[in-house]
Design a protein that fits this description.
Low-confidence stretches: 1-9
Number of helices: 19
Structural class: alpha/beta
Oligomer: single chain
């Protein structure tokens, strides 16, 4: 009747979507005034979360009402209905139970039946928390880099909620099945370009904590979209003190890619990883390995004092910006014979050692070279991931590393998607600023159409 009056006494058009009545209209000002008064603390402020708070009272009322409904469905009749007479089972009072929720601990009066056969679904027996809001909150905090101890402190301080270390770990471990499904998902048959880079984390392995590289592979598919193909950590042999980045490790990574459907990688851009070239050629014999030029420049400048770096970098630039591989070789010879080359011979040796893996990109135009010779795209991802992992002391195992990195990637992309959606809702336009654009997953490669044409000419028949 009230709803009809609200709509001017007219029924909504057939097929029209009815908007839900706002909660304030359902409760009424009188009920809200009572809740407001009951939620004030001694200083007159509001306690919205925590034990005895306004939101806690609302959650308690909703849950207890839902539990009464569950018991009625279980018994087959409602409270005080005569249909329950002689059924052999009936209501048998309530039992107190405290559960942890997203707004703090809530003390519930859980109804019971006389036969003891009632099993609540919403608040299961022996369950100490209500999943959903609280679980999502814990996973979100974990994805932002908070340790289990930090999450415990946050829940205790803000929501007056106590959860054990084991309970929080179990909540975050619930995503491991999704992580494993993601790690084993089918991939495209051909990736024109794959980038490999690492983020170093501290992991407990073989009863000791050590720094281990977690390798991420980002592939550009034939449509020019980027995707994170996987995350891998090298296992530490029992007889060794450190994890080995050996050909055996890279062989396992390449076999993993093959088992997931990859049949060809045209160009792999890496940082001169030990054992990588041998392993990738065993799995993908025709792959061209391109050393990341940005990494080479960093390695070349590492022994150069800060006062000379700008001048040395300017001379090295003549090598990797040369029009051809022959011109680059001449520029390297000129640098080696120069004052800077005589003073810092290590810089020249970096290019000499990796020359065969450094020069493949010279076969392309400057626009395509920029795409191929740097792992900046994956390094941008790793920069974001380092912000998440730096707050952690160490991880209990490899699975914990993969779990956090996967959650962080999902969290970063979701955050940017929400920002794009909000901007579009406000302005009607899509915002493509660096802070809101896709970081990696599904991002379109700039200038891909031109690059694809050149790659197809250079590697005929391999990109389909």
């Amino acid at each position: 009747m009230g709803a009809a009056a609200h709509h001017g006494g007219q029924n909504p058009p057939s097929g029209a979507v009815q908007q839900p009545v706002p909660l304030r209209e359902l409760l009424g000002d009188q009920v809200l005034d009572v809740l407001l008064e009951r939620s004030r603390d001694g200083a007159g402020g509001l306690r919205l979360t925590g034990e005895g708070s306004m939101l806690g009272e609302l959650v308690k009322a909703v849950l207890e009402r839902a539990l009464e409904g569950e018991l009625s469905a279980h018994l087959g009749y409602g409270k005080h209905e005569v249909a329950g007479h002689g059924t052999g089972n009936s209501r048998n009072g309530r039992i107190g139970k405290t559960v942890q929720t997203g707004v703090g601990p809530v003390r519930l009066a859980v109804p019971r039946d006389r036969a003891g056969t009632f099993e609540p679904v919403l608040v299961p027996k022996r369950a100490g928390r209500i999943s959903g809001g609280l679980d999502d909150m814990i996973i979100s905090l974990y994805a932002h880099g908070m340790s289990v101890r930090d999450i415990q402190h946050h829940l205790r301080q803000i929501y007056d909620t106590e959860l054990s270390h084991e309970a929080i770990s179990n909540i975050t471990d619930a995503v491991l099945e999704e992580v494993r499904a993601w790690q084993s998902r089918p991939l495209e048959a051909v990736y024109p370009v794959v980038f490999l880079d690492a983020i170093v984390v501290k992991v407990r392995d073989n009863h000791s904590v050590q720094a281990k590289p977690a390798y991420l592979a980002v592939g550009i598919d034939a449509e020019g979209e980027k995707h994170v193909l996987g995350i891998w950590l090298a296992k530490t042999p029992l007889e060794s003190a450190t994890a080995g980045e050996s050909a055996r490790f890279w062989s396992a990574v390449m076999n993993d890619l093959r088992n997931r459907g990859v049949r060809d990688i045209v160009i792999a851009c890496t940082d001169g990883l030990a054992g990588f070239e041998e392993a990738i050629h065993a799995a993908f014999p025709h792959t061209t390995v391109q050393t990341c030029v940005v990494h080479m420049i960093r390695n070349a400048l590492r022994p150069v004092p800060r006062r000379d770096r700008a001048a040395v970098a300017a001379e090295l630039k003549k090598i990797y910006t040369a029009p051809t591989a022959e011109a680059a070789f001449d520029a390297l010879a000129d640098f080696t014979a120069s004052v800077w080359g005589q003073r810092y011979p290590q810089a020249a040796r970096v290019f000499e050692t990796a020359w065969d893996r450094f020069t493949p990109f010279f076969a392309f135009s400057p626009a395509v070279r920029k795409l191929l010779y740097t792992t900046n795209g994956i390094e941008s991802l790793n920069y974001q991931l380092r912000k998440v992992t730096k707050a952690r002391g160490h991880f209990p195992g490899d699975d914990a590393v993969v779990k956090l990195l996967w959650l962080a990637i999902i969290n970063i992309e979701d955050k940017r998607a929400r920002e794009r959606a909000v901007h579009k809702e406000k302005t009607g336009k899509i915002k493509n600023s660096p802070s809101t654009a896709r970081l990696i997953e599904g991002q379109r490669t700039i200038g891909w159409r031109e690059a694809l044409i050149e790659l197809d000419i250079a590697y005929p028949g391999r990109i389909k």
